[in-house]
Amino acid sequence: MLPYALLFFLGCLTLAFALNLWRLFSAPTLTDRVVVLDTMTINAIALVVLYGIWAGTGLYLEVAVLFALTSFVGTVAYCKFLLRGNIIE
């Protein structure tokens, strides 16, 4: 049952990436594109977790947490740059 669930989840992630790419190129504003990129990093984190479950090791879960922290800091820095014009004050 687990291989079928993992295959279904992989199909859902593929569809999510395709819809995110469509939204990335059709987004009207730059802030919409930032949100799409943040959503794509969440999908990439889910893909890393999926691979960790498939491989049966907890190492990939730690990688997913590090990737989530890095992605959050990057999104906050980019939003601050859009609002104020520089990152470091």
Give an overview in words:
The protein is mostly helical and 89 residues long. It is built from three helices and no strands. The protein has helices at 2-26, 30-55, 59-84.
Short description:
The protein is built from 3 helices and no strands.
Label the structural class: mainly alpha
Which shape, going by the Cα principal axes?
flat
Radius of gyration equals 16 Å
State the end-to-end distance: 53 Å
Fraction of residues in helices? over 70%
Q: Using DSSP, what is the number of strands? A: 0
Instruction: Name the poorly predicted regions.
Output: none
Strand content: under 5%
User: Main beta sheet, described?
Assistant: none
**H/E order of the elements?**
HHH
Helix tally equals 3
Give the mean pLDDT.
91
